[in-house]
C-alpha cells in the first residue's frame, strides 16, 4: 500500500481534530505531535495521546519533547486508532455503556479484514488495552466457525503443509481409528 | 477498492510470488495470535487452526498456550457429545452461541464412564452385562488426541463394570482409576486402584457391600467426581439404604454422605447425580405426586447434610412426550441447566423457563479441556527400557524390581533369560501370569515398544 492513498484520510483526520478546541475556548488544550514510520505527522490532543500508554510513558520520561516518533506504526492504522481513542475519551466524559458498545461494534464492522489485522500490532505497541480487546474479539468473531481454508485466506497464511503432510497429521489425530480394533 | 476485490487481487498476487512477505499475518505478533486463539471455540482450534500452517500448529501444541487458553477463555460450557457409541464431538456453549466440532470416530462401540480433569474414561460397550472380565477400558485426552488402555482385569475378577471411575488426587497431582469387583465366587466386593503411570492395579481392600445391592440400569448417571473423591448415589427402593458412597482418592478410603429425607419417601425417584462447582447435586421427582416437575437438590455446603436444598424445579412445559427419562447433565451457577429429556438434549434457562432443543440425540458429559500431554500425566508408564539398561549395567544381567504386588525379574541377555528358568525351574514354576502392561499409544514412537509388541518380544 502506498502512502499516497493514505494521505487523504490523514488530512481529514487532522482537520477533524482542529475544530474541537475552538468550541471549548475556555481551556486551550495542549497538542502533541505523533510521527508515523512513513513520516506522516499527526497532531492530537494531549488527552488522546495519553490514551496511548507507550506515548504517555515517553512523555513522562522526556516531558520537553514536542514530537513523538512511532517507528513501528504506519499512518493508516494510526489514523484509525486515533479515531477510536477520540471517541473513547468522549465516553469517558459521559459514560454510556450502551452507546460505547454500539460505537465499538460499528467501528470494527466497517473495517476491512486487513484494516483490523493491521491495527492489532499498533494497538499492542501503543498499549491501548480497550482497543486491543475489541480488535481481537472482532477478528475471532470473523473467523469463528469458519473452515481452515477461510482462516488461511483471512490471515493470508501460506499453507506450508504438503497435502501428504496435512493428511498424515489429521490421520495421526484421528487416533481412535488405530489400535482400538486390535483387541 | 472494495474489500472482496482487494482480497482476490491480493490472493492472486500472492500466488504469483509465494515467497512474498506481503502476507500480513507475518506482522501479527505470536502473542496477539494467541489472544485471538483464546477467543475461539476449542473444536475450531483443534480441527481447523491446528492445520492452517506449521507456525500455527507449533503455537497450538505449546503447553504454555494451554495455560493461557484456560486463563483467558471466555466463559463457556464445554461438553463431549457421543452419538451411537461411535462418534465424539465437542459441544460448546458461549452465551447465545453453540459450537459443534468433531473429536473422533471409533471403530468399535464405546461408552462414557466419566470425565475427570480433562481426561475421558471410556469403556467398551456391552449391553446389560454387569460382570465382565475382559472389558477394554481406556483413557483419552481429546485435546492432545492421545489415549491409553488401562491394564485389563486378571482372570477370575468379575468387574462391577458400572462402578468404576477415573479420579484425580490434587495432593499428589495424580490421576487414579478405581474398579470394584468380585473375586471368584466370594460375594465380598473388593476395590483396586490404578494410578496413572504405575503400570498395574493394586488392591485397596474391601468395598462397601451396599454398592452391590443397588445396581441400576441408569448407573451411568449416578456417579460424580468432585473434591478429590468419587461419588456413587445409591437408590435402594425404600429399604432406607439411600445414600452417597464416596471414595477419596488421596486416603483411598470409602465414606458416605446422607441424602435428604425426601429421598426416603416411597415414590420418590432419584434420576441422576452431578457436580455443581465444588459440590454435588442430584435430580429427582415424585413419581406419584408430580411426575412432571423435576427437582434439583444441591448440597450447598459440601459434606454438610443439613445443607441439602431444593434449588430448582423444572416443569415440563416443553411438551416432552416421555417425561420419565430425565437427566440434569449440567447445572450451571447462573441457573441454566443442560438436560436430557427423553432422548433429546435441551438447554434450559431457569429465569425465562425457556427450552432450546438442540436437535441432537445422544449422551453428553461436561468436560474441561486439558492441554497436558497424556505422556506427562502417565509419566511412570513411559518406556522403562533405558532405566533397565542402566540398572543392568550397574548390577549385572539379572535384576529384580518390585514394580507391582509381585517382584518382577528382568534380564538383559537372551542367555540369562533362558538360564534363569531352566536352572532354577521350581522357583519359577508357580510364578503368576505376567500382568499385561499398560499400552500407551500416542503420536510418539518412543512409547510403542511398551505395548503388545513389547510383550511378544519379552
UniProtKB/TrEMBL annotation, chain A:
<dbReference type="Pfam" id="PF01466">
    <property type="entry name" value="Skp1"/>
</dbReference>
<keyword id="KW-0539">Nucleus</keyword>
<feature type="region of interest" description="Disordered">
    <location>
        <begin position="1"/>
        <end position="32"/>
    </location>
</feature>
<dbReference type="InterPro" id="IPR036296">
    <property type="entry name" value="SKP1-like_dim_sf"/>
</dbReference>
<keyword id="KW-0833">Ubl conjugation pathway</keyword>
<keyword id="KW-0436">Ligase</keyword>
<comment type="subunit">
    <text>Part of a SCF (SKP1-cullin-F-box) protein ligase complex.</text>
</comment>
<comment type="similarity">
    <text>Belongs to the SKP1 family.</text>
</comment>
<dbReference type="InterPro" id="IPR001232">
    <property type="entry name" value="SKP1-like"/>
</dbReference>
<comment type="function">
    <text>Involved in ubiquitination and subsequent proteasomal degradation of target proteins. Together with CUL1, RBX1 and a F-box protein, it forms a SCF E3 ubiquitin ligase complex. The functional specificity of this complex depends on the type of F-box protein. In the SCF complex, it serves as an adapter that links the F-box protein to CUL1.</text>
</comment>
<feature type="compositionally biased region" description="Low complexity">
    <location>
        <begin position="1"/>
        <end position="21"/>
    </location>
</feature>
<dbReference type="GO" id="GO:0006511">
    <property type="term" value="P:ubiquitin-dependent protein catabolic process"/>
</dbReference>
<dbReference type="GO" id="GO:0016567">
    <property type="term" value="P:protein ubiquitination"/>
</dbReference>
<dbReference type="GO" id="GO:0005634">
    <property type="term" value="C:nucleus"/>
</dbReference>
<dbReference type="InterPro" id="IPR016072">
    <property type="entry name" value="Skp1_comp_dimer"/>
</dbReference>
<dbReference type="InterPro" id="IPR016897">
    <property type="entry name" value="SKP1"/>
</dbReference>
<comment type="pathway">
    <text>Protein modification; protein ubiquitination.</text>
</comment>
<dbReference type="InterPro" id="IPR016073">
    <property type="entry name" value="Skp1_comp_POZ"/>
</dbReference>
<dbReference type="GO" id="GO:0009867">
    <property type="term" value="P:jasmonic acid mediated signaling pathway"/>
</dbReference>
<dbReference type="InterPro" id="IPR011333">
    <property type="entry name" value="SKP1/BTB/POZ_sf"/>
</dbReference>
<feature type="domain" description="SKP1 component POZ">
    <location>
        <begin position="30"/>
        <end position="87"/>
    </location>
</feature>
<dbReference type="GO" id="GO:0016874">
    <property type="term" value="F:ligase activity"/>
</dbReference>
TrEMBL record, chain B:
<dbReference type="InterPro" id="IPR036396">
    <property type="entry name" value="Cyt_P450_sf"/>
</dbReference>
<dbReference type="GO" id="GO:0005506">
    <property type="term" value="F:iron ion binding"/>
</dbReference>
<dbReference type="InterPro" id="IPR017451">
    <property type="entry name" value="F-box-assoc_interact_dom"/>
</dbReference>
<dbReference type="Pfam" id="PF00646">
    <property type="entry name" value="F-box"/>
</dbReference>
<dbReference type="GO" id="GO:0020037">
    <property type="term" value="F:heme binding"/>
</dbReference>
<dbReference type="InterPro" id="IPR001810">
    <property type="entry name" value="F-box_dom"/>
</dbReference>
<dbReference type="InterPro" id="IPR050796">
    <property type="entry name" value="SCF_F-box_component"/>
</dbReference>
<dbReference type="GO" id="GO:0016705">
    <property type="term" value="F:oxidoreductase activity, acting on paired donors, with incorporation or reduction of molecular oxygen"/>
</dbReference>
<feature type="domain" description="F-box">
    <location>
        <begin position="22"/>
        <end position="72"/>
    </location>
</feature>
<dbReference type="InterPro" id="IPR036047">
    <property type="entry name" value="F-box-like_dom_sf"/>
</dbReference>
<protein>
    <recommendedName>
        <fullName>F-box domain-containing protein</fullName>
    </recommendedName>
</protein>
<dbReference type="Pfam" id="PF07734">
    <property type="entry name" value="FBA_1"/>
</dbReference>
<dbReference type="GO" id="GO:0004497">
    <property type="term" value="F:monooxygenase activity"/>
</dbReference>
<dbReference type="InterPro" id="IPR006527">
    <property type="entry name" value="F-box-assoc_dom_typ1"/>
</dbReference>
